[in-house]
Amino acid sequence: MRKSLKFENILTIVKFLYNDALHGLLNRPFFQKKRNMCILGIICFCIYFAYFYLNMLELSKISITSTNLGNLQQLASKTTLSSYYNVVSILSIMIYVLMNATFHLSRSSLFFIRTLPFQYPEILVSIAFFKLNTGLILFELVLIVTIPALKLLGLSILLVTAVFVSLHLVFLVWFQGLELVYSIFNNLFKNKTKYATQILDSCWFVFAMVYFFNIRFRIDNWVAAQKISLLSMILLVTLVASLLAIIIILSRLKCPKEIIGHMQSNFVRPLPLRFRAKVSTLPLMAVSRFKLTWYYGIIVLVMCIFSLCYSGWRSMPQTMLFILPFVAVIWSLYADSLLKIRRLFNLYRIYPHVELAFILASLSLLLMPTLVIGLLTGNSWRPYLFGVGLSLAALILGFLFPKSQGNINETISSILTLIIAALLSILVNINSALLPVIFILVILAYYLIYKEEEPTI
Description:
The protein has 457 residues and is mostly helical. The protein has helices at residues 2-26, 34-66, 71-102, 107-115, 120-146, 157-188, 193-225, 230-254, 273-276, 282-288, 291-323, 334-337, 352-366, 368-376, 382-400, 409-427, 434-453. 76% of the residues lie in helices and 0% in strands.
């Protein structure tokens, strides 16, 4: 009876955390109508179906060509599978670091959990389960995008299922392993938990970048040189990941992480008054108020430095074309910055079409380096259009998932932005394919801005 009671308490706390996290999402004007939710679902399904269909066509051509290459196909399959495991490892690190940096219990949530008669272990297990379940959902969203590439392995349905399970075990090992590392650091530096966590986040991010640009290629080459079959490789990874997962989970139970709840300052020092009255500078001023905007700028700078170190001056412009468009992520913060005063815009004659025009001008200005580098390297304006589409997608997700309205809204919008980036990248090499997508995104952005400024009765 006691075990059942504990399980019910854990379930109650998890439900509360999800209700608290999704409260802001379900209260958004866009999601208050079932019609809008159905339309959004249909659009997402159509986008994914188109993405899946285009990928399968291209991968079928590659598969037909590779069947005539004998041993080279086996070599390519091992390299592809190794690359899958490496990318999942990097993705697991990034998801955990992102969640750890953005998810914190609010004071009201912390008061609720500590006031009611819940046992301390139940609270710890509930928070750990909530974070793992949310991270797993985000991982599934990214994994859906990469599933078509499994066709390159030429495996049966049974082996593809085994690969699918092993990928989840790798994610579990990394996610719970990082939880264990952070728990140990929090217990060692109880008085300086905030600074220890920030240092760890930075270290793991740098490690993920080194892993992405250097270590994974060495691992892929080493695996390709080994005389091991795909089946043996899958079974080995599954067995090792299962053992590690059991060891880490048992260790986590003996080294619980402290419950942390605090209000973080999201903004930098207020801007000078002379800037506040200019509507033309409103979009840039709104996003630049956030500390995360400066963090993203530092991240892009660090990635450029890593690119220079590992690629050299000649290859750096090509790498920059891949990195610079991701500055678009900062536009997911725009809606939250002006959320409390948006309904006053009509009084100041800041109409939706005027605001959208200045947003487009501002994001075009931020993406100007991408356009210049693209023209100089012969890639024309396609990377620039990719950045524009990604900026609009981040802007839309910012309206749908405002940072201050839910514990995990920022994490969700960031991961969805990366998924949309993967979908848009498919259209980059198709002539003028990005133009109709950008047009649709502009219309959707205008509709959301209009609904946000619409007075409530």
